[in-house]
């Protein structure tokens, strides 16, 4: 398996624009997580899915953020409209339910810069 | 809710020496898993080691070992014979073994520098 695949690797956009981050989890994994990493706040869980269903979205900062998982092999995180404070590295990770033993497998992350 | 604390924002170690990174966590559960991740400058998150809470034996992976103290809710990482390639951010993480709450809770990280 190629691992968790995120696109794009880097995104630079202007304030007010819509940004869509994409993630392909590892085949067979039934959990998918979106994290945001910044120097100030560290690694924050934004939302996670189990079997394509959002389980906990309490980490989503505000209504400008939305996430979907239309099928087991694809998820998106959308920011509309984007703001400079959204600049961060966004990670997607996937895992498997086996009583918690399986680690989270991370993608390479998307570095988002909003100017 | 579970929390994970790493009280050392930064650490440094001389090459070939040993260093220990601290991690404490708070939970009311008895069955869970703990992980240490490494994030080098490439920003890729890499699993270093995993510990199962119901196992008393401390996990080891080559130069990496843990000191797991369940009663104290402590999970420290020891790196022996430190190498320049060990320089990275290290994150401690918790995952419940129960069907609910299977998300990962990460600590704030410790930045490790390795001095030649």
How is this structure best summarized?
The complex is a heterodimer of chains A (115) and B (116). Helices cover 0% and strands 54% of the residues of chain A.
Key phrases:
heterodimer; A: 115 residues; mainly beta; 11 strands; B: mainly beta; 6-stranded mixed sheet; 4-stranded antiparallel sheet; 53% strand
Mean pLDDT of chain B: 94
Mean pLDDT score of chain A: 94
Q: What helical percentage do the residues of chain A reach?
A: under 10%
Order of helices and strands of chain A: EEEEEEEEEEE
Round the Cα radius of gyration of chain B to an integer and report it. Answer: 14 Å
* Number of E-state strands of chain B: 12
SS field, number of helical segments of chain B = 0
Low-confidence stretches of chain A: none
Class derived from helix and strand content of chain B: mainly beta
- Major β-sheet annotation of chain B: 6 strands, mixed
Would you kindly provide a written description of the structure presented here, covering whatever features stand out?
The complex is a heterodimer of chains A (115) and B (116). With 115 residues, chain A is mainly β. Chain A contains no helices and eleven strands. Chain A has strands at 5-7, 10-13, 19-24, 31-38, 42-50, 53-56, 65-71, 74-79, 88-95, 105-106, 110-114. In chain A, strands 2, 4, 5, 6, 9, 10 and 11 form a seven-stranded mixed β-sheet that branches. In chain A, strands 1-3-8-7 form a four-stranded antiparallel β-sheet, with no helix packed on it. Chain A starts with a strand and ends with a strand. The mean pLDDT of chain A is 94. Chain B is built from no helices and twelve strands. Chain B has strands spanning 3-5, 10-14, 19-21, 24-26, 32-39, 46-52, 60-61, 64-69, 74-79, 88-96, 104-106, 110-115. The radius of gyration of chain B is 14 Å and the shape is globular. In chain B, 37% of the residues are buried. By secondary structure, chain B is mainly β. The A-B interface holds A 31, 33, 35, 42-43, 45, 48, 50, 55-56, 89, 91, 93, 95, 97, 99-101, 103-104, 106, 108-109, 111 and B 31-33, 35, 43-45, 47, 50, 52, 91, 93, 95-99, 102-109.
């Amino acid at each position: 398996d190629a691992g968790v695949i995120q696109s794009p690797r880097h995104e630079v956009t202007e304030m007010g624009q819509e940004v869509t981050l994409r993630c392909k989890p590892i085949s067979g994994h039934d959990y998918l997580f979106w994290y945001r990493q910044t120097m100030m706040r560290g690694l924050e869980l934004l939302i996670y899915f189990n079997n394509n269903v959002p389980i906990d979205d309490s980490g989503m900062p505000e209504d400008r953020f939305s996430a979907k998982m239309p099928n087991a092999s694809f998820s998106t995180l959308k920011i509309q409209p984007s703001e400079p404070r959204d600049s961060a590295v966004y990670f997607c990770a996937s895992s498997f339910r086996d009583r918690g033993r399986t680690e989270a497998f991370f993608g390479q992350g998307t570095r988002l810069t909003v100017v | 809710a579970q929390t994970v604390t790493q009280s050392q924002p930064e650490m440094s170690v001389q090459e070939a020496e040993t260093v220990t990174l601290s991690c404490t966590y708070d939970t009311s559960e008895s069955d869970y898993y703990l992980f240490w991740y490494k994030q080098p400058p490439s920003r890729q998150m890499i699993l270093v080691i995993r510990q199962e809470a119901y196992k008393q034996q401390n996990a080891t992976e080559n130069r990496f070992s843990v000191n797991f103290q369940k009663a104290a809710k402590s999970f420290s990482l020891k790196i022996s014979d430190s190498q320049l390639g060990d320089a990275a951010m290290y994150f401690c993480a918790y995952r419940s073994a129960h069907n609910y709450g299977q998300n990962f809770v990460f600590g704030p990280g410790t930045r490790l520098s390795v001095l030649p």
